[in-house]
Amino acid sequence: MLIIGATSDIAHETGKLFAAEGAWLFLVGRHREKLAAVADDLQVRGAGRVETFPLDLTELDRHQELLAKATEALGGLDAVLIAHGTLPNQRACERSVPDMMKEFATNCLSVISLVTLLANYFEQQGHGSIAVIASVAGDRGRRSNYAYGAAKGAVDLFLQGVRSRLFNAGVSVVTIKPGLVDTPMTAALPKNFLFARAQTVGKGIYKAMLRGKDVVYLPWFWRWIMAIIKIVPEPLFKRMSL
After folding, report:
1. Cα–Cα distance, 240 to 233 (Å, whole number)
2. Most CB contacts within 10 A, which of 4, 127, 169, 192?
3. How far apart are CA 205 and CA 200, in angstroms?
4. Can you list the pairs that 118-124 forms with residues at least 24 positions away whose Cβ atoms lie under 8 Å?
5. Distance between CA 108 and CA 87 in Å, rounded?
C-alpha cells in the first residue's frame, strides 16, 4: 500500500489499521523526521515492511519517480491512499493570485497528477484501489472557504470520471469526504460537536477501501448535512454567512 501524505493524522490512523494486518507500506510525506516517526510506529504495529520517500508533492515532475520507487520497493501495488493537503487562509487567497495558485497546486493539481499516473498503472494491472481524501467543502462553494472548496470540488469531479473509466478494469476509486476533523490542520478553528476524531475518520477510510465504496462521507451524518446545503436556492445561499 502506498500512503501519500502519510504524516497527516488521518493517514496515520488509517495506516495503523493496515499495519495491524501485516501490510507492506510505502510512506510519502514532506517532512523527513515526521515521516520516519510514523514509519517506526507502523512497523511496531505490525506492518510487514515500511519504506519512506520524503517529497514535496507540488513537485509534479517527480511523481513518476515516486511511483517507480514505490512499486520497486514493494514489488507492486494493491492500494493507494492520497491524504495530503493544506487548509488555506481564504482572505490571503482572495488578495493574492500566487497564494491562490499555491493552494490549488497542493490541493488539486498534485492530486490530479498522482491519480493520472496511478489510474494508468492500475488499469494495466487489472485490479487495485485508489482512495483520495477530498472534503465536504467541495460540495458547494461557500464564502468562508471557497479557495479550499473549489480545489477539493475539482478533485471530486475528476475522481468521478476516473471511477467510471476504471470500473470495467476492476479498479475501485474511493472518494473520501470528511467533515470537520480535530487535527493540527484545523487547530486554529473553534471546536464544536461536529468535529470528529482522526481515529474515527481513519477507521471509516479503512472500511471504505476494503469494501470498494464509491463515495463516503465521514462521519456518516455529513452526507445529510451536505444534502441540505446543496439544495438551498442560490438567491438564498449567497446571503448566508457560511
Report:
1. 11
2. 4
3. 9
4. 118/67, 118/80, 119/162, 119/165, 119/166, 119/171, 119/173, 121/67, 121/71, 121/77, 122/77, 122/166, 122/169, 122/171, 123/165, 123/166, 123/169, 123/171
5. 12
Provide the mean pLDDT of the chain: 96
| Predicted confidence (pLDDT) per residue in 61-114, tens digit | 999 999 999 999 999 999 999 999 999 999 999 999 999 999 999 999 999 999
Residue 205 one-letter amino acid: I
Taking the CA atoms of 146, 155, 176 and 185 in sequence, report the sign of the dihedral they define.
negative
- CA–CA separation, 141 vs 137, rounded Å? 7
Q: Rounded CA gap, 118 and 198, in Å?
A: 26
> What's the half-sphere exposure (Cβ side, CA atoms, 13 Å) at 72?
8
Q: What are phi and psi of 17, to 5 degrees?
A: -70, -40
Give the pLDDT score at 28: 98
Residue of 60, 47, 65 whose CA lies nearest to 6: 47
Distance CA 48, CA 29 (A): 20
Measured distance CA(202)–CA(221) in Å, rounded: 16
pLDDT score of 10: 97
Q: What is the pTM of this model?
A: 0.94
